[in-house]
Specification:
Three copies of one chain form a homotrimer. Chain A has three domains: 3-94, Udp-n-acetylmuramoylalanyl-d-glutamate--2,6- Diaminopimelate Ligase, Chain: A, domain 1 (3-Layer(aba) Sandwich), CATH 3.40.1390; 110-316, Hexapeptide repeat proteins (UDP N-Acetylglucosamine Acyltransferase, domain 1), CATH 2.160.10; 327-361. An eleven-stranded mixed β-sheet of chain A has the order 10-13-16-19-24-27-30-33-36-38-39. In chain A, strands 8-11-14-17-20-25-28-31-34-37 form a ten-stranded parallel β-sheet, with no helix packed on it. Chain A is built from seven helices and 39 strands. Chain A is flat and about 100 Å long. In chain A, 55% of the residues are buried. Chain A is of the alpha/beta class. Chains in contact: A-B, A-C, B-C. The interface between A and B is large, with 63 and 67 residues.
Chain lengths: 362, 362, 362
Amino acid sequence: MSFTLDEFAQNLDGQVRGDGNLTISDVASLENATSADISYLDSNKQLKAALASSAAAILTTAELAETAQKRGCQVTLIVVDQPQAAFIEVMLRFRPMPPRSTIGISPRAIVSETAVLGEGSNLFPNAYIGENVTLGKNCEVGPGAVIQDGCTLGDDCIVHANAVLYRNVTLGNRVIIHANAVLGADGFGYRFVNGEFIRIPHTGSVIIEDDVEIGAATTVDRGMIGATVIGKGTKLDNQVMIAHNCQIGKHNVYASQVGIAGSCTIGDYVQMGGQAGIVDHVTIGTGTKIGGKAGVVSNLPDGGAYHGIPAVNEKEAIRNHFGIQRLPELRQQVKQLSEQLAELQQQQPTTESDQLEIKSAA
Amino acid sequence: MSFTLDEFAQNLDGQVRGDGNLTISDVASLENATSADISYLDSNKQLKAALASSAAAILTTAELAETAQKRGCQVTLIVVDQPQAAFIEVMLRFRPMPPRSTIGISPRAIVSETAVLGEGSNLFPNAYIGENVTLGKNCEVGPGAVIQDGCTLGDDCIVHANAVLYRNVTLGNRVIIHANAVLGADGFGYRFVNGEFIRIPHTGSVIIEDDVEIGAATTVDRGMIGATVIGKGTKLDNQVMIAHNCQIGKHNVYASQVGIAGSCTIGDYVQMGGQAGIVDHVTIGTGTKIGGKAGVVSNLPDGGAYHGIPAVNEKEAIRNHFGIQRLPELRQQVKQLSEQLAELQQQQPTTESDQLEIKSAA
Amino acid sequence: MSFTLDEFAQNLDGQVRGDGNLTISDVASLENATSADISYLDSNKQLKAALASSAAAILTTAELAETAQKRGCQVTLIVVDQPQAAFIEVMLRFRPMPPRSTIGISPRAIVSETAVLGEGSNLFPNAYIGENVTLGKNCEVGPGAVIQDGCTLGDDCIVHANAVLYRNVTLGNRVIIHANAVLGADGFGYRFVNGEFIRIPHTGSVIIEDDVEIGAATTVDRGMIGATVIGKGTKLDNQVMIAHNCQIGKHNVYASQVGIAGSCTIGDYVQMGGQAGIVDHVTIGTGTKIGGKAGVVSNLPDGGAYHGIPAVNEKEAIRNHFGIQRLPELRQQVKQLSEQLAELQQQQPTTESDQLEIKSAA
């Protein structure tokens, strides 16, 4: 399968700058592209890679095209409004996503008699569907995935292989649960009685709203009384931990290995870098950005950026960082001051009598 | 199902302060409660939430009841000794835990002929029981959970869905293993020979003592020679990592994403906050508290609290934290000193002759 | 089963210093050894443990033997070139690794008709092999492990229980994938369009080269365009996260809970301590050592050691650490200087007229 650049440009509403008759047969990154590949450039940071690229063609913006050509770029460019979006369109032409499986209800899936399966359900072998589970339309449950009693899934959900939903977990529509994720395990709460930790029963549940994606091996614990909630459109990367009772807002994006302790309330559009951690019972405002590895220990208002352990606002974090970097310099200054002062003290008449001497002299 | 407050008070050995005829039909947190819910208050921190709560009634202590009523609380209160314990009792009245499954040995479980299953065993479909496995009484093995050759479980253990026990792992009584946890994978040990890392065989095992709870996706590696041990009553949250040869004491509590490197020895009643990490081969005393995200790099005696990377005792950690926060102030002070000193130096007779001049004058 | 020390010494090409007729019947660590056990000593750090050990015999080097005996060690020693290697040989004599299973293709494994299985394959019950999967010779797929459509495994691979390989993942020869690891989940990449995060399709794959070991619950995401690659001989501990598009070199060793963000390029022989994290799009040189919990935020050249958040070279990290530790001392110094200076200023004639007075006096 191959196409000419002119054909692509027409489909993408783009303009060819160079030889539109070139044919391409695949997509590649700027670094890996060969003379049969198309790539894309959507940031100044990649300009160097673009200039060194062996790609047949590069999708880019008008502005970046101009810069690239000024700097001697010889590759044919296709100018489009949104290079990444256009690139994805081209990529899917060469590499269409595998079509939805037509497996239907595998005879080797395990489905309780009380479960209700929506039309278009795909249940792979060893998928497990407990009592009173309801699946909406077109859900897919992978091999070995376990959906325990009383769970409810909306339409078009995918639960990948070996993921586990404990009892009474609710998924909205178009939710994706990746392999080995666990939703609804008991929250980590104990009472300390006579030298032992006694489990606090967790009678709440987990609610995952529409369009949420939960990464591989990510865990979301059930609430003690109410539900732990992941808001609409939120995306959790792999190995994220959301503890009991958390209320995560809409359209949050958390990178891998983030951990949110119990009973936190997080606003909408919050972003967290990898390995960030939030202590229990804090409230974080909408639009906040938490840096990678940051440790948040107190409530945060809407909209700021926070870094460090304990997390402070970006400005303070930078100040702290450079403050530490410049400590040797500061020590040096103090040492010099100390020496200069000692010298001054020596020059100085230092006894009362000396003082008097001068005065009397005067 | 609903009860009057008087009925509850009687059962809980509590005293009603307000209208005992009110009926309630569920439990809720102070924040989410409606006029048919009962909630609880057991800390001054929640006093504000209690005053703003729409709950029909609140379980609390005599002391908190007095404070709340002084501050104008209108909600009916039930005074009890232990509000949380009483609340849990009430919660379980409205929301009884699902009864133990009566599934028995599912015909779709996979059970080797050499396995010995205690009476009352529940094996869900796709549970896998290897050769020479012994299960005590009333154990439950969830769908897809894998218990490999030679494992021994005590009585009343629960191994949740898709958890994996490698060969020869031993569980005591009343142990709970959550979904997708892995016990007994080979320890991470290699010898570097001729430019390659060669696996060190791990012939040891994992021993989990009575009343331990292991969180979802938590991993405990097997020892090289002896066993990795998790002591009686210890609770590990989700995504915790315990490396080979560790000896974890009794009644430890580790929050999510804690990592303990190889061959550590940890005392009893040690608590660790989320994402804390311990380097290999250290010994940590009984009753120690390790803060969230702390990085312990040396032995710790009994009983202190430690924070930071590397972890230092709490007092030093606070001092370090404020030391960094106050660096700009310190720099400013040094700058001022420097200026004042320069001024002094200028005022000062600075040559030997000047000095002599003064002296001669005297 | 028991052997005399002389027999062992002969096999290991070692020299007995003490009673060669002693028989031993098992191996143990220095701490746990009884009078029927052999142990080993290969570092000065363990010398104290060796002197206190109840072992029947200790494998050690000539140099350590001399030191130990000078310090009064009474235990029989066997002097060998490489004590750990010799100890492993002895350990495997007493505790041979369980022989390879002879299960073959379990009738309860799920194998698609289009899969090609090499000779010597072991597929456990509930192992799942998708369409067009190819297995080399002598591969083993554990209970509940899932190998999805289009995956290719070389010879002698082991995929442990409940691990998941998404479609089109490639393993080289002798690759070990531990329980509940996930290879090939979609990379965590989204475009922000009209207030929502839209998934970027990930058409790339994951390539695991020869002799790689992947720990339990570790996740390696598939690339967007090309493959995420784990180089030959690299060992990843449990709960490690490798994000999409990363190119990990050969013979890397990463301890547990390390996280590498997207599109990083890592050289060969790189070592990372537990919970270290690397931001996206950085390049790390060959032979680099990244400390536990370090946070790398920029490219690193070959061969250094780095610590801290953000990670700096070891020397600077130590300087920063002690700089912070010594802040109270620095503050004290500044306070003293300030006091001394104030004193000087007071002693000092401070007005123009005072100055003149002195001068006139002179």
